[in-house]
Design brief:
37% of the residues lie in helices and 19% in strands. It contains six helices and nine strands; from the N terminus they run E-H-E-E-E-H-E-E-E-H-E-H-H-E-H. It has a single domain, classed as P-loop containing nucleotide triphosphate hydrolases (Rossmann fold, 3-Layer(aba) Sandwich), CATH 3.40.50.300.
């Protein structure tokens, strides 16, 4: 296989990364692009750090099994198929399924800390940052965590103030200046999506 083109997509929680990537997926086949999410590499709950109030903090770089994340990314670059169980964010109602990642000419790596991880950062040929106003991000976070992950509202707000925001300011926001394309998703990301789609199709 010729050299794989690696694209990173990051942004703060609630910026719209997942929606952006889901729309991007519709324009490409698995043979063209492989999508890998950092979210599928969270460590088990018992290995996560707990804050002074006894609340588990999932918004730290060490919350992710970076070693396995880097290992599987390298496997895909070497032309190997990777299998990994989907992470369900401790939602008892979610059914865990096995995910299969196939090597492709383009790999898109998505996650909060992909630019903070030096080994991953060095592999990236194109860096994208999905951005949004702080008030919009917290509204989206509330909707997602309450509905999809079954978290109480008080818990969502506590985590945002004490975990999410400090993590964004320390581990995510500083890398905006390194990115090749910043997509502001305050109303929609349609134009940014079209720009990226056009560029990736030209690469293929």
């Amino acid at each position: 296989m010729s050299k794989t083109f690696i694209v990173g997509i990051s942004g703060g929680s609630g910026s719209g990364k997942t929606s952006f990537i889901n729309q991007l997926k519709k324009s490409f086949s698995e043979k063209e692009i492989c999508f890998v999410s950092q979210d599928d590499y969270y460590r088990p709950q018992e290995e996560q750090e707990v804050d002074e109030k006894g609340v588990t903090n999932y918004d730290l770089p060490k919350s992710i099994n970076k070693k396995e994340f880097c290992r599987d990314l390298q496997k895909l670059m070497d032309g190997e198929i990777v299998e990994r169980p989907e992470y369900t964010f401790n939602n008892d109602h979610a059914e865990t399924k096995m995910l299969t990642f196939h090597p492709a000419p383009i790999i898109i790596v998505e996650g909060l800390f992909i630019y903070h991880y030096k080994k991953v950062n060095k592999l990236l040929d194109l860096k994208i940052f999905v951005n949004a106003k702080p008030n919009l991000k917290i509204i989206r976070r509330i909707k997602r965590d309450k509905i999809e992950r079954n978290y109480p509202l008080d818990d969502v707000l506590y985590r945002y103030e004490n975990h999410v925001l400090p993590s964004f300011e320390k581990y995510i926001q500083p890398y905006i200046s390194q990115c090749d394309l910043v997509i502001n998703n305050n109303e929609d990301f349609d134009m940014g999506l079209e720009v990226l789609k056009g560029y990736l199709k030209s690469r293929l």
